[in-house]
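> forwarded from #structure-qc
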């Protein structure tokens, strides 16, 4: 009886994994659509740090935070969005959600920095800044 329960649990677990959808494939057009300023908290080896991740329409990026400065390029490879930057700033970005709920999950290849970024503006797209003057 105990082996039947274990076998049932194993089958349920494996079938749940098989049906879980993977991340959607990313195209070069998706990179352009992500252009703008992103911000979020990353888990680091020392705790948490607030980072700014600016994506330009040409696919270049800049990441900055206290004690962090890096630049690089976004690359679409095998349907995944990769960032290839200076120093250890290489890893994966996974776009999720749409509209106001869109986010970017970020993880460096060394797994020392990971977190979720949220859009904060479109200042990196080359679009003129929005006026804050009142009528």
């Amino acid at each position: 009886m105990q082996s039947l329960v274990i076998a049932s649990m194993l089958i349920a677990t494996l079938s749940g994994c098989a049906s879980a959808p993977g991340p959607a494939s990313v195209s070069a057009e998706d990179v352009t659509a992500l252009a703008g300023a992103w911000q979020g908290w990353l888990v680091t080896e020392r705790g948490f740090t607030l980072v700014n991740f600016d994506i330009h329409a040409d696919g270049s990026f800049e990441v900055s935070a206290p004690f962090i400065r890096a630049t690089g390029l976004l690359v679409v490879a095998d349907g995944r969005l990769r960032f290839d930057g200076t120093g250890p700033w290489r890893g994966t970005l996974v776009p999720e959600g749409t509209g106001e709920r869109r986010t970017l999950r970020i993880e460096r290849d060394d797994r020392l920095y990971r977190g979720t970024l949220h859009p904060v503006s479109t200042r990196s797209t080359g679009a003129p800044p929005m006026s804050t003057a009142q009528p």
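QC bot note: Confidence is low (pLDDT under 50) at residues 1-22, 124-135. The two ends are 76 Å apart (CA to CA).
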